[in-house]
Amino acid sequence: MAVLRGDKDLADGHSTKLTDEARELVNPFQTGDDTTDVQFTVDDKKLHFNKGVLCVCSPVFISMFTGEFREKNAREIALPGKKYSDIVTFFRHMHPVFLADTPVTDNSLLPLLELADEYDVKHVCQKCERYINAQLKLAEEGRQHLSMDGTLLLLQACDRDDLRPQRERLVNVIAKKKTRELTQSQKFLSFPADFLADVFRLRCEHLEVCSGHLTTAVRRITTDVSGHDWGLTLNLPQKCARAVFCILII
Q: With 73 labelled, which of 2, 18, 50, 157 sits at a CA distance of 20 to 30 A?
């Protein structure tokens, strides 16, 4: 397994100009060396890896290479139904040399989660979860606009029991978007019905809270001005403005 120039530079402490997406395409597993002892075939292309690394990361590979399976003594293993670029990225996230320099991206999130589930690679699942949390935090703090494409991606990623809290956070983020942005998006209506139901339920709850605050504010203003000459109530505009401000920040 040859270390490519971009990764060696990073290992030596020199910077590179590779983007996250470009790094996903860098394939250090094209050729074998003294450290590789198994070869995978994906989309009629070869990938060389080390059984020991695979077994450390995955109990599925432990069973494959130590149990009574045909792959136990095989030098070449076919992975039908898998996408070559997805497996390359997955292997990069498993290999200790490339793990730290291989970020999760929008492009790799869903394939990584699927493969990590299939092969029970917990540290890859955790890395994807950290990426999802980071994206949600940026959206919650208003530091990054979450598009409908981004929403759909995160929703698909959160369609797992262990990511239910992240799904609830996503519902909260979308429920606060302006109605025009939601209705103008063609993808919004393609979201799962249960997600839309949760979004609209939360929006209704938010409107009820706003309505309650508005009613309280109006009652206070009415009480303040009752029995007074309207022309002499100089602080009425300030009170109205304060009431509206309280409603808007809810």
A: 2
How far apart CA 241 and CA 188 sit, in angstroms, is 34
Structure confidence by residue, pLDDT tens digits, 190-238: 888 899 899 889 888 888 887 777 777 777 766 665 555 544 444 555 5
Domain span at residue 142 reads 104-188
Residues 49 and 125 occupy one common structural domain? no
Whole-model pTM over 0.85:
no
Write down how long the chain is. Answer: 250
Of 140, 168, 188, which marks where a domain is finished?
A: 188
| Residue 54 to residue 62: CA distance in whole angstroms | 8
The H or E element that residue 237 is part of is: helix 236-248
What is the per-residue pLDDT across 20-74, written as a single tens digit (0 to 9) for each?
555 555 688 988 888 899 999 999 999 999 999 999 999 999 999 998 888 888 8
